[in-house]
Amino acid sequence: MLATVIHAARDIRVEAVPDPLLSTGGDAIVRVVAACVCGSDLWPYRGITPTREPHRIGHEFVGVVEAVGDDVALVQVGDFVIAPFYVCDNTCVNCRNGVSTSCLNGSWWGGDDRFGGFADGGQGERVRVPLADGTLVVVPGPVADEEVPGLLTLADVMGTGYHAAVSAGVTAGSTVAVVGDGAVGLCAVIAARRLGASTIIAISRHRDRQELALEFGATHLVEGRGDEGVRAVRELTGGIGADHVLECVGTKESMDQALRSARPGGRVGFVGVPNGGPELPIRRMFDTNVGVVGGVAPVRGYIEELLPDVRSGAINPGRVFDLELPLADAAEAYAAMDERRAIKVLLRP
Amino acid sequence: MLATVIHAARDIRVEAVPDPLLSTGGDAIVRVVAACVCGSDLWPYRGITPTREPHRIGHEFVGVVEAVGDDVALVQVGDFVIAPFYVCDNTCVNCRNGVSTSCLNGSWWGGDDRFGGFADGGQGERVRVPLADGTLVVVPGPVADEEVPGLLTLADVMGTGYHAAVSAGVTAGSTVAVVGDGAVGLCAVIAARRLGASTIIAISRHRDRQELALEFGATHLVEGRGDEGVRAVRELTGGIGADHVLECVGTKESMDQALRSARPGGRVGFVGVPNGGPELPIRRMFDTNVGVVGGVAPVRGYIEELLPDVRSGAINPGRVFDLELPLADAAEAYAAMDERRAIKVLLRP
Description:
Two copies of one chain form a homodimer. Chain A is α/β, with parallel strands linked by helices.
């Protein structure tokens, strides 16, 4: 089969690789219907995370089950499934606590899981899914083709934006600022709206993303960064800052802006992968009582909650895909996102 | 009148200073019935915070109102009052948001407030209280002498320990670990119990403090620090760590222990004044979804909530005072706390 392999910074290739095989009783083989490129895939693409040897890449996909192991009970051949961006059993104590990203038996796409050997990356034609009963969520059929982009966002970006809002404690009537206008930041706008925020400030300087933020429920746009951006958020929030700030980037500058955009006693929900960034300024947090809560988003736990809204069209996170390419053009997908020609690229095997 | 002045590290003197005078319409003059020494007073005492020139010290006191300005409406001459460790108007937007430590008009004891000039420190015979209607909480009389220690804890340590537990999100049935066995840590044990935690692990290696922790509701004691302490907490919490960890010290080591004692998705509530300590490790927080929430405790907002429990004896935070001295012996009070001969010292003018 074909799958995407990163060889080095800016060297993305779609290559022939071995077909996946059922290797534990709990596996499923999924034929990928759609995959996509994540903002975090750009760290190795840009060389910020070093690529020491060629390896599979991609961790977001939806597809149809082609085969299941003998022990699989909840997933059947022919099911349309969503895979979160990680593997989990959905039964261990951490999963039950809502932190399936810390599953005691979990693993990551494109790496070794602890039972079945190599698990494929998501940007390929097929994927062996370990712990299929825990990892996969079945979407009751039939699934229309136009539903695919929205369902695919539940593999990562929609759940991740939602985790930012949940971690920040967004509630009805609150004021929210969103730092980051990538797909996750835009989904965080949807999340804030869904949780009832009355003021949602999207921080963006790109026209196309601003428009999408407004469509998703942003009530205000702020273009400034740094001091200017902080000042603008304060002006929109009675001079004190936002109740909740959703940090969806992961750099030093974005976290600094997030912390300073929160009101005293406010909370930053963070989901941007910390990019070797600096540590958090505890004295500032102490003086202002601004808390910081979040992390790698346990999206598996949000899929069932968000699925009905995606299927009904109550929320439309699939709109973050503004470019669709065949899997064979994965290199161009990365380049388009790297150069900000696209917000998020959907790949069709 | 007499008041405590710090001249330099380990140089505490009780000196004659000017009597306080009403200087704004909103002031009250309070005759101090009892004051005390705070763990944070030990930073300048030890020279960790430099003392550039002699200044008043002390920020916890209860007393009786001797005079009020023309604009004071909620406090009357003769009232027994509790002063939180800071001045606030209790009406601004930050106060209304529950963060009175960030009051837009607030100030600190022993410094200039923005309306009335110098506000006395708490370790003296009398204190001019700016913004008396906002700052002071009246305790309905009569107040028995044996109630004084408990009421005095509401000026700081009981409310601060409570803030750790509230910030960490302690709820009924949860598991809690408390890092720090000073007065605040011990009050955090009371707080965790009051909020319904079913497992409360006190980390202490001092026999007297261990006994008080057990009396206050701790269900387990852990003596180890660092890796050993973290391992012990994990063993008591099903191998994963505590749901909530209350950080009541403020050093690098204590915060590290707190972060590593929390389970994935758990939360650290921190109230220890960060002692120039290092910044928070955001990557660890990201990977584990352990949030950090807390800061300088807005105790003014907790006094009314906790007062009935203190008066009824449902909670007994006054037990943290294990030494009582006349105000004239303030220097000995500092030495006793510095040398850990006392948990907390009450001073009587």
